[in-house]
Amino acid sequence: MKLKIALILILFTCLALNLTAQKKIPELNTEIVKYVESVMGTKVERGECWDLANQALLKVDADWDREYKYGNKIDPEKDKIFPGDIVQFEKIKVKYAKGNATYTEIMEHHTAIVYKVIDKGVFELAHQNTEFSGRKVGISKFDISTVVQGKMFFYRPTKNLK
User: Fold this and answer.
1) Which SS3 state, helix, strand or coil, does residue 3 take?
2) pLDDT value at 14 more than 60
3) Mean pLDDT throughout 79-104?
4) Predicted TM-score (pTM) above 0.85
5) 57 or 162, which is more confident
6) Least CB-packed of 1, 36, 116, 149 within 10 Å?
7) 53: pLDDT strictly greater than 50
8) CATH class of 26-159
9) CA-CA distance, 135 to 52, in Å (whole number)?
10) Residue 42, Cβ density class (10 Å: 0-12 exposed, 13-18 middle, ≥19 buried)
11) For the chain, domain boundaries
């Protein structure tokens, strides 16, 4: 009986900590995710990958350089990544196994928004102009550990103070 109570308390504590962690998502990031949800499955502007991030940042009045630096640069190895953070990929090559097959994907110059954090270094990304969703906004899983080449830059959007 004591073991059951202890397990219930541990479970309750884990759930409470998880809810607390979810509440710590920066407000601007939460607004970006809401925007992404509002356009899911549709084509944003021309359907380019950059168009989704551009429109999300404009909608929430974020401060950024209007090119490929989407706020404060963050390090996924050291910093907590939140839904709503933006990722810029440069000459990325990804290799992963699925079943008995090995797949390779290349992202020469691509922009995505973190839609969900699954685990450290594992995310669901919202993006468009992809093989799987075409020019419409879609979601795909991304695991940093599968990157074998290239660079990625993570950014935390910041509010425009002007």
Assistant:
1) helix
2) no
3) 95
4) no
5) 57
6) 1
7) yes
8) alpha beta
9) 10
10) exposed
11) 26-159
